[in-house]
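User: Fold both of these, please.

Assistant: Here is the first one.
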Amino acid sequence: MTLATRKLGGQGLRVSVIGLGCMGMSQSYGPADEAESIATLHRAIELGCTFLDTAEVYGPHTNEALLGKALKGRRDQVTIATKFGFRIEDGKQIGGVDSRPEHIREVVEASLVRLATDHIDLLYQHRVDPGVPMEDVAGAVGKLVAEGKVRFFGLSEAGSANIRRAHAAFPVSALQSEYSLWERNLEPEIIPLLKELGIGLVPFSPLGRGFLTGDVKRAEDYPEGDYRRNDPRYQGRNYDANVEAAGTVRDIAAARGVKPGQIALAWLLGKSGDFAVDIVPIPGTKRRKYLEENIAAASLRLDAAEMAALDEALAPGKIAGPRYGERGMAMVDR
């Protein structure tokens, strides 16, 4: 199959309707396997999943370098999104954010080298920097667009006030934020704003960090170094409540003869029409098997009754625990 495409924003960006989150190829979910990761990237291109998401902080730096290596001779077949905004020294994330205009330029120049390309298709501010006016951030990216080093501007986990400020200074094509069946925080305020301004939505962790796939364990059962060991929603009573809430996803999947994760992705794609906002999820994987499962979700259509059942079963009040610990939540601009 070849994936359909969707536009993101009103500036001409068009991407595959499902993208590929590449973070896990370098960190967070078990040991890296470069050969399988590269094979997964090549398979994604074969299947038309050509919207690839990375960031300088993934690794740090090693994820962009992996894409640069894997995409040699294939650069013109993909749309690359990357991000700036965290403080990194000597190849290590040291905490805090940095979106000073001069730093944005430094990051972009270094990312271009690692990605082995002369332009970044979509450049996101990874987290809002309260010390730098959003107008200055947008202006810095706008200059890079004018120079041809960047094509489109995006934000990640930004709140409504900063989305408005950024978009007024330079057009924002996409907002990347966590959004899925079990993380619905965007619905009351952010999604209506995206519709108003004509900005696309790129949900990361659309499978609930793996929870919505049905193949989950308690936090303590994951190996050291796996992100899920510290995820509040995988811990203790939160885990029990969330397994129960996700039961409807499993039930609908069983009735359809598909995987639970495919139901979760089909729900997201269906929400694009409900909200009149272009939604392009970027499920992350480093294995071809799961990539192919995720892409197959693009051909799955849920009916109104199934959508309503999922909406009810995983309503915000039925999910237990915050999506990050205290430090992570403090960096979300809401």
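And the second sequence with its predicted structure:
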Amino acid sequence: MADLSDDLKRIGNELAEAEEYLRVDELRARLPQLEAEMGRPDLWDDAERARKVQTEFTAVKDDLDLYDRLAGQVSDAETLSELADEEGDDSLVAEAEELIATLAREFAELELRALFNGQYDEGDAVCQVNSGAGGTDSQDWAEMLLAMYRKWAQDKDFGFEVTDVQHGQEAGITSAEFVISGRYAYGWLQAERGVHRLVRISPFDSQARRHTAFASFGVVPYIEDAADQVDIDDKDLRVDVYRSSGAGGQHVNTTDSAVRITHLPTGIVVSCQNERSQHQNKDRCMQMLAMKLVDLERQKREELLASEAGESKKVEWGSQIRSYVLQPYQQVKDERSGYTSGNPDGVLGGDVGPFMEAWLRWRRADNGVA
């Protein structure tokens, strides 16, 4: 009979590591406190506070349930192995091996949690797609990327809300801003920041020639208290209003309700058109501007620390991070991690998760991120 002692030792060690990076002891101490908060009759008198408590309670409960389930399965595998040894039953060995293989896959996925160690990694993400060089092809490409991230979010049961979209003259979009909400949304989507390159036979070329198009993806964390962290002077803002071009009920194409705000000192531009009134769209724009300014300050601090430490930071924005080749061969390749897929249709259909995972592991190996 097969000796499973090494496999059992390995999954036992992985369980111990999971207990550490999930902070199980802290979560067990925190859960009763959150349960008491959830039971307060006046909890929803402060809706913002109530949502934070509810979100934290769900996250703590989910993590503890996950850890307890894995601990139970590890115990089951150990019991099966012991019974197999006692009874000399090969069928029990096979059952234990199958359970160990399942646990190995689950621990490999769970290990990614240890890579989400940034201040905002666990929260939502404010995203932007912009068309680049390539004319109509790049605008069509930007719309394809928007659809890819929408499908990825749907597959993960994440929320997806488009706050603004600017359509191209012939096809596609010139830009789109959207919010993806779900646990670790920002942690995952950091992997996508940069320029994405598409090579294909252009559907807009009557001679069916191969064209290259570029589009960029940007992301900042959704920070609820961002407005409290930055001081925005009205004289630094240029506010433009325009007619909404998207869905939004009877006000669409009848009133100038959409708002675009340019922060003159930094050149940051935010826009919103999906709310019902100009006032609501402006409030949403100011919220997103505050988030981008907070993130900009964070980037400046990181660059300063890197400079003082003598480090050379890699500039990702404006550089090609991934190529999607549809002609003359079929391949998607990430230029940073080296991860490659031979199924571009699947990737564009939302299966971009493996590229994000490969980037997280590459970042840890390349930059020493624990």
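Residues 47-87 form the longest helix (41 residues).
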